[in-house]
UniProtKB/TrEMBL annotation:
Stored PANTHER family: ARAC-FAMILY TRANSCRIPTIONAL REGULATOR (PTHR43280), TRANSCRIPTIONAL REGULATORY PROTEIN (PTHR43280:SF32)
Name of this protein: Transcriptional regulator
Molecular function via GO: DNA-binding transcription factor activity; sequence-specific DNA binding
The HTH araC/xylS-type domain, residue ranges: 198-299
Pfam families according to UniProt: HTH_18
Keywords: DNA-binding, Transcription, Transcription regulation
Phylogenetic classification of the source organism: Bacteria, Pseudomonadati, Bacteroidota, Flavobacteriia, Flavobacteriales
Length: 303
């Protein structure tokens, strides 16, 4: 897989103009024009840059989670360093958005270098993009316009601080708009939890739990065609619990059924559920059920 260590090398590969700054670039469709068109397709690649881009689709389907949508407005996409990217020519974009690309070292020594790692949407897949309302789109474009003005100006000692301040503002708005999007997608969130539990049920029924142990959240997310971070964030917003917590609750529910079988020891139940160490199973059970496996068994055996 090809990896690009500098912003210039990455933009050269995309067949885009070289940046005005060695570690930062902005492309906008100002004055009613169009963005420069990058390569139509690419095999999997990675780079050391962050990317924030607004795209408008005029042809082809883009999925949000597992659902197809007609995106009249823009889709805001965030890509983190070393995230694998691949695309083909099946989706045609109206090149009237913007594209901001900057090397991770551009943020070194700034507060944003730490803050940006907290924005989980940089770990989402492209099909989990932020879909802006017309009002939100105008707010984001206004910030990008300020960034572009500073980018095009002659560089001085204030330029970088101003650009980073505007970038920080853009990300804070994006975070707010994602919150709105999660709230507006309750039906999708409920379906995601249902599918999450269904995948766990399939995994247990197939006997994989004994062979391969407890499945990782990454494995489940892959089965659901969503990113691990998006899965956890969506479930957290809707249910108040992360994907890890839902997995643990599923395991505890399974444990409760199996503990009532008097022919099995607590250690056997733990091993059946994929726990390598029975003491860890007992601690988790007590934490989630409020009672130890042994006490639970004795309590309900008497009823």
């Amino acid at each position: 897989m090809q990896h690009f260590k500098t912003l210039s090398a990455y933009l050269d590969y995309l067949e885009l103009p070289r940046p005005e700054h060695p570690m930062f670039s902005v492309f906008t469709a100002s004055g009613g024009g169009f963005l420069p068109c990058p390569k139509e397709s690419s095999p999997p690649i990675t780079n050391d840059c962050y990317s924030i881009s607004l795209k408008k689709i005029v042809k082809g389907d883009l999925n949000y989670g597992r659902t197809k949508y007609d995106f009249t407005n823009g889709a805001l996409i965030f890509i983190a360093p070393r995230q694998v990217m691949q695309w083909d020519d099946s989706v045609v974009y109206n090149q009237k958005g913007f594209s901001i690309n900057f090397h991770e070292d551009f943020l070194k020594g700034t507060e944003l270098a730490h803050q940006i790692k907290k924005y989980s949407f940089f770990s989402y897949a492209a099909n989990e993009a932020l879909h802006l309302s017309p009002k939100e789109e105008k707010q984001i474009e206004s910030i990008v316009e300020n960034i572009d003005i500073e980018y095009q100006n002659n560089q001085d000692e204030f330029s970088k601080d101003i650009i980073i301040s505007q970038l920080s503002t853009l990300l804070k708005y994006a975070n707010r708009f994602y919150e709105r999007q999660f709230l507006n997608r309750k039906e999708l969130s409920n379906d995601l939890l249902e599918q999450f539990n269904k995948q766990l049920s399939i995994y247990f029924d197939s006997g994989e739990i004994q062979e391969n142990g407890i499945p990782s959240i990454e494995q489940i997310a892959h089965k659901l065609s969503v990113s691990q971070r998006y899965l956890s964030d969506t479930l957290k917003k809707e249910t108040g619990k992360t994907s890890t917590e839902h997995l643990q609750l599923y395991l505890i529910d399974e444990a409760k059924n199996r503990l009532l079988n008097p022919s099995k020891t607590i250690a056997e139940v733990a091993f059946e559920l994929g726990f390598e160490y029975p003491p860890y199973f007992s601690r988790l059970f007590k934490k989630k059920a409020g009672i130890s496996p042994k006490a639970y068994r004795e309590k309900y055996r008497m009823n």
